[in-house]
Amino acid sequence: MFTQDHLQELLSFYANGTPVVSMYLDTDCSQQSAETVKLQVKGLLRELNGANEQDAVVIERFLDHSYDWTRPGLALFSCAPSDFFKAYNALTNADMKFPDAVDSEGNVFEVGQSSINSLITHSDSKVRQTAFDHYADGYLNQKNTIASIQVGGIHRDIFNARTRNYPSSLEASLSPNDIPPAVFHALIDTFD
Question: 101-141: what fold?
């Protein structure tokens, strides 16, 4: 889900004069195939006339290797010269409902993806407590579903790595940023 934090992250990005490529894609595969969307994206990227060739490579690699095509929509933001790339799926967590938070005077505050950060830093400790409890409980109530989704994601990553001829899912996930697995392992060894 696209949250207030994501918006702030985009707003705070400073490209230092380099252009940022943004794309908003309908990726509903019941309407058109993933290959059709990829061809449309390649056509749009060609219209940039090579000005953002690095961005085109990053976007195409993301769509080929990383994007979950079960999602109905996607917003992409890329500025490769500034090492900036963000992708947001549409409609995640849309069905999760959380009970309202309550302050010490009985006023209610809606708890949701876009409001939780401001509620857990609210000046009233009762708002902070009830917002956190209700938000956490909403996820705990869905723990089996979330675990199944996570397992499915792991299986998807393994499947995608195998079908796209990557030696491992680690290498598949590092590939969009051209990070060698040795760098990942060196980082882990540093903190081990």
Answer: Helix Hairpins (1.10.287)
